[in-house]
Target: 4Fe-4S Mo/W bis-MGD-type domain-containing protein
Amino acid sequence: SKKNTDTRATSICCYCGVGCGVLINKEKNGSITVEGDKNYPVNKGMLCSKGMNLHYTVNDKSDRLLYPQMRYNKSMPMQRVSWDEALDRTAAVFKTFINKYGPDSVAFYASGQCLTEEYYVINKLIKGFIGSNNMDTNSRLCMSSAVAGYKMALGEDCVPVCYDDIELADLFYVTGANPAWCHPILWRRVEAHKAANPNVRLIVVDPRVTDTCAIADLHLQINPGTDVTLNHAIGRVLIENGDIDAHFVQNHTEGFEKYSALVFQRTVAEASRICGVTESDIRLAALYIGEAKGFITMWTMGLNQSVVGVNKNLSLINLNLITGHIGKPGSGPLSLTGQPNAMGGREVGGLANLLPAHRDMNNPLHREEVQKFWGGTTINPKPGLTATEMFEALNDGRLKAIWILCTNPLTSMPNVRMVEEALKKAKYVVVQEISNKPETLQYADVILPAAAWAEKEGTMTNSERRISYLNKVVEPPGEALPDSEIICRFARKMGYNGFDYKDAAAIYAEHAKLTAKTNIDISGLNYDILKENRSVQWPYLKKRYIKDSSRLFTDKQFYTPSRKARIHAVPDEFTSERADNDFPFILTTGRIRDQWHTMSKTGKVNKLNQHYQQAFVEIHPDDAARLAIGEGEVAVITSRRGEVHVKVRLSAQIKQGVIFLPMHWGKILGNDLNRANNLTNDIIDPISKEPDFKYCAVNVVKF
Ligand code: SF4
Model:
């Protein structure tokens, strides 16, 4: 109640990339409650089930790590130590490895849930001072295909639209996404807009009938992995119908001739057979696009998490480009970011192939600029190990030490049993965590307790380039510290200068300065402005001569050298694992409505566990009948990499021959048979290095 409320602070929900504004009320007894912020432009007071229950995760400290722990060798038990002991020893071990095996023998594996300031200091530490680019995050498993797609098509990793374009669009093409469950508040805006405007249309592309399809005018239930073929076929029909924007294509794009020649190599009838949707539905989709005045494409993991994820992204962005639906109200590509701050992480260069402010690692001038700014060591031109590559390198001994923070790879990585083997072999594992639950802790040599959401301040950037400040409201429990503080203390133990920040605002100021004169320039931004304005979208220059930054490319000038957007003629090749007699089903994985990632937070909330209480597999009733498995019976699912035993849910809403497993469950009391990623394949997209989570061959039998 208001009477008991002590203070009230603004923040942002720490789950998905929608980035809803939250008000945190601190009660007199020290606990918190949350409510949606009515004044925040993204959600206008709304929160989804996960956001509404955020306070439980803060108030319930029962699983929190409270103090640093360490073991001196693998056969010794963990013991409580001081921060100094833990960090002194870790610095000594890191120095030994770096001296003996070189800087690339150590790595940091972080998270799209880190705050921007945290990303910044880790990136600075390893790239600018240790001299390795071995810093990657779980954003590699999430958005890296979209990053590459944007960069190749538009010359920059940028979402050109803003959420307010939703209310200006009259056609949404949602593909490889179930925003009704995974980006709920953004989806409420689409639903409300469509309900109020009967002319607004929705096309959904998904191998499953999801809740997102409930309001669809057209659902293309494609065969998994055939997205490029479908998008090309739609492109072909648009060209045939004369429904492209010839003036825009001519003046503001390059590559159209090659693209046009390519898409005409396959007939619509052929595409229809490959994709498993009717020719008339493909033509209808193209017709809707041709008639649209405002056309927004939306996508997420269904396109990104693929061995051809970049091609899928490019084939989709092509539809915006050939129709000229970009840089104008209600039009453009809108990738739905999975995590709350994958965008902020990229802004500071927090991936193994990036430098701060989206600078290129392979550009010597960019490397020199950053190196001079940081005043550390020479920046290595060679990209570092990406997420899956790090664990391969631990397995074969190239990598000696890994520092894992804010993520739970033993549930979330593909081919996860291999990852577990890798952690067993690692010489030194640091786990920086809030909870005592993640399985990674079992392999840790050092455990560092971190502060959680609302226990530290910092910034995040959501899917529409909106940067927001998150307040600290409560003290972290025990000796837990903010992640940036832990990293800075460690850097000082390593003897590096430049990690003596007064506070998070000072880290942010340094980051902002380093963005000057780049496409993502926020050199005019600081904590005072963020606190006063609540949020701003980038770019945000020192001299505010730039016009409104809510929508990019309104001048049709793209970030490529020619200033033209690039239409890429990407092949529709198939390079996933093929189903065969031994493994005849296709497995696709995904989320459920009320859980977040590996459940270390949402799994604590009783209300959220009611939706689905345990892992399950969704199978088409005809497939189940052939296998003689009934509803609720246990199925044994095997792939070339592992097995899973879970209860069956029959669903006519999935294609025959395809099964679906939620990705949230990990090991439970030593039993890993609920873990979907035992089965998934760790082959990766050659450009984005994102794994093929949405497609692998499996067998299903009754237990
Ligand atoms: Fe949080 Fe996303 Fe739900 Fe908004 S939609 S409340 S950001 S989980």
About this structure: The domain at 144-336 is CATH 3.40.228.10 (Dimethylsulfoxide Reductase; domain 2). The mean pLDDT is 95. Residues 83-101 form the longest helix (19 residues).
